[in-house]
Amino acid sequence: MKCPYCADPNTQVVDTRENEEGDTVRRRRRCLACDKRFTTYERVELQLPLVVKKNGSRVEYDRDKIMASMALALRKRPVTTESVDAAIDRIEERLVTLGEREIASDRIGELVMRELKKLDKIAYIRFASVYRNFEDLDEFSDAIREVKKPRVKRPRPA
Fold first, then answer.
1. Which of 33, 80, 98, 108 gives a 20 to 30 Å CA spacing to 47?
2. Distance between first and last Cα of the chain
3. Residue 41 burial (CB < 10 Å; 0-12/13-18/19+)?
4. Which region, left, alpha or beta, applies to residue 19 given φ > 0 means left and ψ of -120 to 50 means alpha?
5. Contact 38/12 with Cβ under 8 angstroms?
6. Angstrom distance (rounded) from CA 91 to CA 21
7. What tens digit of pLDDT does each residue of 19-55 get?
8. 104: which strand partners?
């Protein structure tokens, strides 16, 4: 593994950990030349379907695109990178288990929204407003009602 700082090929693994699901290995590495540390992730490469965009064109699935759109929705929200990685892993697992060679981009968008709803309600609203192209306040209100938990009325003390 080349060092991302100095490009020296001599690095040493300092620490190795599996995630909770056991499908990703995180390795902390140290460059023997410049002594900087960096992290690498090892995961199984899955055969993911081609993504059919709204205009009918087909592109290869790109994990980084999902990561970028989720990161934008989660900007300044208290959600860990590990939680986002796990959410994307679940999306990819779902795509693989569907067993389809192609999948519509809006279906992937729905999977992203489902995961964001679990991670952070504000991020879900942010993503939904762009993804569903909200045009008025009523659409925002509907989305907020969708994620809002009903309040439990507590009895008042006598």
1. 80
2. 69
3. exposed
4. beta
5. no
6. 14
7. 877 778 999 999 999 999 999 988 877 688 999 998 9
8. 52
Helix extents (H) in the chain: 63-73, 81-98, 105-119, 121-131, 137-147
Cα dist. 101→49, 58, 114 in Å? 5, 11, 22
Instruction: State the Cα–Cα distance between residues 119 and 78, nearest whole angstrom.
Output: 9
89: tokens are 């892993």
Q: Write the CA distances from 154 to 148, 151, 157, integer angstroms.
A: 18, 9, 9
pTM of the model: 0.62
Quickly tell me which residue has 């759109």 as its tokens: 69
Which alpha helices (H) appear in 99-135, and where do they start and end? 105-119, 121-131
Q: Which two tokens stand for residue 11?
A: 């690095």
